[in-house]
Design brief:
Layout: H1 21-31, H2 36-47, H3 59-66, H4 70-80, H5 93-104, H6 110-117, H7 119-123, H8 127-134, H9 138-149, E1 171-176, E2 179-184
Antiparallel strand pairs: 1-2
């Protein structure tokens, strides 16, 4: 093959678009066994996920919009929650983390009880309260917390084009002995 033989394909024909979260979930839904009603409800659910992958519209609103029972919408939500990425279509952080634990096969353990009953203590790192109320050792709590730390609180962001913007400080303050030293951050300065 040489270039003289003809024109090469356009670069635009070789570019691919990264799938969005909705594209990825619709693709999985098309590969699954859904009835026509479940497909309509599923499209409503997928269309009402935020960029983090959480369901932002109420189940009752979707049922009213699609003229179906709330229990039917709940069943479709549960089916979609089995899709990739794990934790998708949850209504809150607690449900998102519990779905992911179920996928890992560690449901009904200490990690699940901590997520269900002690999410506030987990956020504030109040492990003593968890130890006292669950009647387990601190080592067991730390192991469960380590497992919970591997879960993704925002599973939809994998398919998002938004990138986090990190705050870069202008100065750093270091404590050296009894003194504080202020150092100017020269990175990015003209």
């Amino acid at each position: 093959y040489s270039r003289e033989d003809g024109e090469s394909p356009s670069l635009e024909n070789m570019l691919t678009k990264r799938p969005s979260l909705a594209d990825h979930l619709l693709w999985q839904m098309n590969l699954s066994r859904f009835t026509e009603m479940e497909r309509r409800v599923g499209e409503q659910i997928i269309g009402n996920l935020d960029s983090n992958g959480y369901l932002v519209q109420g189940i009752d609103e979707i049922a009213l919009l699609e003229h179906v029972e709330i229990s039917q919408v709940e069943a479709v939500v549960r089916k979609i929650q089995e899709f990739d990425p794990p934790g998708i279509a949850a209504r809150d952080l607690r449900e998102c983390l519990l779905i992911q634990l179920k996928f890992l096969g560690t449901a009904n353990g200490l990690a699940e009880r901590i997520i269900e009953d002690h999410l506030k203590d987990l956020e504030t790192r109040n492990y003593g309260n968890i130890v006292k109320r669950q009647k387990v050792s601190l080592k067991e709590v730390r192991e469960a917390v380590e497992l919970i730390g591997t879960l993704d609180p925002k599973p939809g962001l994998v398919y998002s084009d938004e990138r986090p913007q990190y705050v870069v400080p202008d100065v750093y303050v270091f404590k050296v002995g009894d003194e504080y030293r202020i150092v100017l951050n020269d990175d990015g300065l003209p």
